[in-house]
Structure prediction request, 136 residues.
Amino acid sequence: GPLPPAAMSGTKAYVEHRILKRRVQEAKDLELRRKLTENNILAGHGRSDIRVEGKRRARSEAAERRELFEDYQYVRGEQDQARRTQIAKFETQLADELSRRKAEQLRIETDKRRICDGSEELRTLKERLHMAKVNK
Prediction:
């Protein structure tokens, strides 16, 4: 039959105690799950922050390398241009010097010929020399 009131209240207290215990455990489980989720989110943020920082650093380093390479190319271009200008200047100076020497040589030859052709004494000596060769 039905339980006596004392036993009933004992059973009721037991059931209420079990319900309370289960609610406390559920609250602990929920809090634990919330902390795990929060921790995973924060860990994800940390990993994400590290990944973002890595990408930012890589972009910055790439930009720096690109800038250094552009500087290098610019300086090299300027050096090449200076070298070409210097070579062109040397070539012009060399051509001028060779032209001057050739003109000098031509002037000397012309002077010699004029002097030789204009000198009666030299003409006579040349003729004697020529006759000596022929008579040998």
User: Anything to note?
Assistant: The two ends are 175 Å apart (CA to CA). The mean pLDDT is 88. The first helix runs from residue 5 to 118.
